[in-house]
Amino acid sequence: MFEVPGYPGMGLWPILRRTIDRFGPERVMWASDASVNTTGESWAELLFSVIGNISLTAQERALVLGGAARAWLNWPAAAAQKIG
C-alpha cells in the first residue's frame, strides 16, 4: 500500500483522504521516520507531499502536520518570537 513511488506522492493522497474521512484529522498524525521509506523520496519530499495535498483543507493539514499531536500531548505551540 505505501510502496506507491514518486514525489509529490499523489498516489497516496486518496489513502490519506480515506483515512481522514474515516478517523478524523484529529486522529491522524504525519510521522517523519524517513528511515522506513522504500521508494527513495527525501524527508523534505515526504513532508511537501502532505503540504501540497490539495484534497486536504487548511485545518486538516494543520492537524495532520502537528496539531493533532500537540493536542494529544497537551503541548502548546511556542509563542511567536520577535526577530530583530
Structure description:
This protein has 84 residues and is mainly α. It has one domain (10-73). It contains three helices and no strands. It has helices at residues 13-23, 43-51, 58-73. The mean pLDDT is 82.
pLDDT < 50 runs, ≥5 residues: none
Distance between the termini: 47 Å
Count of separate structural domains: 1
Major sheet attributes: none
Please report the number of helical segments.
3
Key descriptive features of the protein:
globular
List the helices and strands and how they pair.
Elements: H1 13-23, H2 43-51, H3 58-73
Compact description:
It is built from 3 helices and no strands. The protein has helices at 13-23, 43-51, 58-73. The longest helix has 16 residues, at 58-73.
